[in-house]
Amino acid sequence: MKLTQPTRITMVGGGSWATALIKILSENNVAIKWWLRKETDAAHIKQFNHNPSYLSDVQINPKKVKVCTKIRDAVKDTDYIVLAVPAAFVADALTGLTPEHFAEKRIISAIKGMIPATNQLVTDWVSEQYNVSPSQIAVIAGPCHAEEVALEKQSYLTIASQDAACAEAVSDLLRCRFVQTTPGDDIYGVEYCAVMKNIVALASGITRGLGYGDNFQAVLVSNAMQEIRRFVDAIYPKHRDLSGSAYLGDLLVTAYSPFSRNRTFGTLIGRGYTIQSAQAEMNMIAEGYYAVKSIHAINQRFNVDMPITNAVYSILYERVAPSGAMNRLSAGLR
Ligand SMILES: NC(=O)C1=CN([C@@H]2O[C@H](COP(=O)(O)OP(=O)(O)OC[C@H]3O[C@@H](n4cnc5c(N)ncnc54)[C@H](O)[C@@H]3O)[C@@H](O)[C@H]2O)C=CC1
Ligand SMILES: O=C(CO)COP(=O)(O)O
Asked: Family, per the entry (predicted)?
């Protein structure tokens, strides 16, 4: 019988999503190098086969996964580099790498955020910084919380790339007993939607924290879908079905699930926490906090009608009281 070599994958990130993706990938024939920032976390995983800081119930298979804390070692002799750190920290994580480290590899972004310093999508930033061609890049999208992957709950991912072969190959890698995958080509559409649904989750959480109910939430989310459509159509027009799971599905899971980082952060803000105290309360990162600033800045050029984004921005960056901002927003929703 012919033995096939395992696919070589580098996972960059030590948080919940990186840990969940390691679990999914380990179901297939892979050899993973897992880069983590913290020496203590890496040492713990080597010794106990669990991430001590995130999803610590997930068993790490030491035959398939080797941990390391040196990014240059992590990206050597690999076929795929998966980026799974919050967007604000991706530049830090990749410090010391040059375009040569990315040559002839596929780069997969699992990140749902914007690069705060440049207001760029992660894939645009990677392309520009490391001279990576669009055909080497894919994005992991879809409504999928790491916590449910840990529990092996049935989940769905969409893998988008401008290169159909790349989307197919990554879909195959991520398909397993409890995850179904679909390849797609709307890389910018799914990336922008993933960024914007985090802003809506903040709004959803803020209004929850303020005491608004399910009736309001439903109207908020349906208005949010229209806002996302207006923005994405303005910035990257393309025929796309926004009712698909990579778009509407992702918005729904994040706006309603108690697992959502962004919704949790928003709820704390709605209850009266300061931004610093809400951040300190969570061991996790709410991408929407950074994304709302970037999307607000980009929209200064496009002038799309974005009342939900504007309300969240005013609360987080202009010190407007959540109750007043949401009162004004609610008057305009239909
Ligand atoms: N958690 C999930 O269910 C999903 C997350 N994602 C995306 O995956 C990306 C990673 O998110 P999560 O794994 O959820 O993160 P997380 O919130 O679980 O963990 C925080 C991560 O940020 C890192 N971090 C925290 N402070 C840092 C600092 N000062 N410098 C450098 N790194 C620091 C931590 O090491 C850890 O990797 C995000 O873009 C998120 O939107 C996408 C789909 C699902
Ligand atoms: O994007 C995610 C799930 O699809 C994770 O983000 P939240 O945790 O904020 O919902």
From this structure: Belongs to the NAD-dependent glycerol-3-phosphate dehydrogenase family.
